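Give me the fold.
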Amino acid sequence: MEDFSVFDIIGPRMTGPSSSHTAGAVRLSHIARKIAGEDVAEAAFTLYGSFAETGKGHGTDKALVAGALGMDPDDPRIKEAFDVAREQGIPVSVEFSDQPPKHPNTARIVITGSDGHVTDVLGESVGGGNILITEINGLDVEFSGEYPTLVIQHDDKPGVIAEVSHVLAQLNVNIAFMRVFRHGKGEDAYMTIETDQPVTQEMQAMILRLCSGINKLFAV
């Protein structure tokens, strides 16, 4: 007999008419905000597939803006997200694309930070408020955000993965899933580590201090 969680049965706590088009869109954009270091000076969104076709009716555009502003799926301000962005002085733009996506509920979130650094995230809303991040800055990745997740940008060289795993073991953090993605041998790479417990800021600082070859680390 298959087990189901309460979340599977009643769905996520959310504001808006659709778990896929609203709650999932908020979560996608919220994670993109975290990947950008929660530094959002400007944001641009491109909607594909069903997101593009029915996004306005379901409030997907507002949901994406809300997530980039740090709102959760049940935040009552989602419907005023464009006004909130305007009040905070954050320019936002939304494009509805007719380019066919791999998944019908796909969005690209491009966040520009206060220093001009650009973070480009592609993701999918796969149903029930669940999501999948599939690309960061042009590099294919894959994680759902269902577990506490470390995303580490690092040099593709021997020893980096072992060092990170060793430090997590010292901190008694259990790894549920780990994947490594790279542009090519010896080039830029991303490590995604889904854990059974959150990795605190103090733990993240220890990883950065003790492990060589890491260029950026963030937790989602």
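The chain has two domains: 6-137, 149-219.
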